[in-house]
Write a structure and sequence with these properties.
RNA polymerase sigma factor SigS, Rna Polymerase Sigma Factor, Chain: A, WH-like_DNA-bd_sf, Arc Repressor Mutant, subunit A, about 180 residues
């Protein structure tokens, strides 16, 4: 489906900065509405606007008029997806930082917990369990990312995590 934006998008895909700038100016409201629809906290708004612009630029370069949908629909989808992805990653990272020890140890124990003790406890886990804990809590991977990286089913990765956390919790309760 060729809409009125298709020729300009094709020029922008051919690295025409004027066409890209024209699209950005025409779709500024769409870019900002992608952010507003999530009702972000004030401190996140600038980051989300940047992510929305990046999503819009990706939309320009990934648009294929032969697929039969308008550029405006594609751009709206891509900008919202970019904002949503940023928020998911940010939330996942923040939650992991907050619950890294909350899942494993009671608050009284985690206050006195040192890096050396943490390494000693990880050494008692199997290689896969230690890998799961490291990738999930230290590197910030999701369960599906861990499964994909290790070439296993997501349920297998969940089992690794579950066993590791059970072993760590049992060790902490014994000490």
């Amino acid at each position: 489906m060729i809409d009125r934006w298709t020729p300009i998008v094709l020029q922008a895909q051919a690295q025409d900065p004027i066409a890209t700038q024209q699209l950005i100016e025409e779709f500024t409201n769409l870019i900002h509405s992608a952010v507003a629809s999530f009702r972000p906290q004030r401190d996140l708004r600038a980051d989300l606007v940047q992510e929305s612009y990046l999503g819009f630029l990706r939309a320009i370069h990934s648009y294929d008029p032969t697929l039969g949908f308008s550029f405006a629909a594609h751009a709206k989808s891509q900008t919202r997806a970019a904002v949503w992805h940023f928020l998911r990653v940010k939330k996942r990272t923040r939650l992991r930082e907050e619950i890294c020890f909350d899942d494993i140890a009671p608050p009284a124990l985690s206050a006195d917990f040192s890096r050396l003790e943490w390494r000693e406890m990880l050494a008692t886990l199997s290689d896969r369990e230690a890998l799961a804990v490291e990738r999930l809590f230290k590197d910030g991977c999701s369960m599906s990312e861990l499964a994909r990286l290790e070439g296993v089913h997501p349920d297998t990765a969940r089992t690794w995590k579950k066993r590791a956390l059970q072993k760590l919790k049992a060790q902490l309760c014994r000490s």
